[in-house]
Write a structure and sequence with these properties.
About 30% of the residues lie in helices and about 30% in strands. With about 300 residues, it is an alpha+beta fold. The longest helix is centred in the N-terminal third of the chain and has 15 residues. It is globular, with a radius of gyration of 19 Å. The two termini are about 30 Å apart.
Length: about 300
């Protein structure tokens, strides 16, 4: 269950949590054409701080642009609304979920003049793949479900309906006794997790798949920038399934997953079955950054005053 907060921002005003409702004929509920973001706010010594707020809001607006959804607010208004929602709920650390959806009006595939609604919720949410997973790594399964093709769905948009693909993959992995799924693209190369980007390490080189069919993850981008600053060799390259099996290290990244090591794929132990040195180094730096303990990265945090 979601750890309920007090209020949700809905179409320009804060309403009580249980009053943030939609009509049963809301267009996006039926057809999936909507966009959302996942954002984290962390507890720091200077107070709550939102991680890479500008980049998340930019991606939300990019998603709406791709989907031809006319956002009724400016980026600055959405940023202020996000901050207001966290502040009003008195949250010191939380997960933030803005969503833009096509509201009640015409039915059928073409929404005509239906209103565009915007909601922002925030609540306390711990580690997505578990504290043990963060510390010791998780077991994952390559899914029988293929990731989206670039001309089947818009892979650079964080589209509500696209996540049915992820839900099916996640359910399959869990039913088989694993913690998470890895999805291949339509050419058979490793794409990403059900809700995360993926990195591997081979011979000291950090590798992640190119963005062809992959969402432009903001934590993914952060890890790449961190690696470059830290002098860690890095490249974008296609990864085959068997290359994943023989990687020295592997880990997921994402707003929810943060930096989660992978210790096993399809019954094959990765490396020595524990988080490797590059994974641990980047994970440690990541958590220092989000907690406001790395001055070189202070521009990545938006403090709530």
């Amino acid at each position: 269950m979601v750890d309920e907060a007090k209020r949700i921002w809905l179409n320009g005003r804060l309403v009580d949590w249980h009053d943030a409702k939609v009509h049963v004929l809301t267009h996006t509920l039926h057809y999936g054409c909507g966009a959302f973001e996942g954002i984290r706010c962390y507890r720091t010594k200077r107070g709550p701080a939102i991680f890479r707020l500008d980049e998340h809001v930019e991606r939300l607006f990019n998603s709406c642009h791709i989907l031809q959804i006319e956002m009724p607010y400016t980026p600055d208004e959405i940023k202020k609304a996000i901050i207001q929602t966290v502040k009003d709920n008195g949250l010191k650390e939380c997960y933030i979920r803005p969503i833009v959806y096509i509201g009640y009006g015409a039915m059928g595939l073409y929404p005509k003049d239906n209103p565009v609604d915007v909601a922002i919720a925030a609540w306390r949410w711990g580690t997505y793949l578990g504290e043990d997973g963060i510390k010791n790594g998780i077991r994952v399964k390559v899914s029988s479900f293929t990731r989206h093709h670039v001309n089947v769905s818009m892979t650079k948009s964080k589209t509500c309906g696209d996540y049915v693909n992820s839900i099916l993959a996640k359910k399959e992995a869990i039913s088989c006794g694993y913690d998470e799924a890895i999805m291949l693209d339509t050419n058979g190369f490793v794409a990403e997790g059900a809700g995360e980007n993926i990195f591997i390490v081979r011979d000291g080189v950090l590798i992640t798949p190119p963005l062809t069919s992959v969402l432009e993850g903001i934590t993914r981008r952060s890890i790449i920038e961190m690696a470059e600053r830290e002098g860690i060799s890095f490249k974008e390259s296609s990864i085959t399934r068997d290359e994943l099996y023989i990687a020295d290290e592997a880990f997921f990244t994402g707003t929810a997953a943060e930096v989660t090591p992978i210790r096993e794929v399809d019954g094959r132990v990765i490396g020595d079955g524990r988080p490797g040195p590059v994974t641990r180094r980047l994970q440690s730096l990541f958590f220092k950054i989000v907690k406001g303990e790395a001055r070189a990265y202070k521009s990545w945090l938006t403090y709530i005053k």
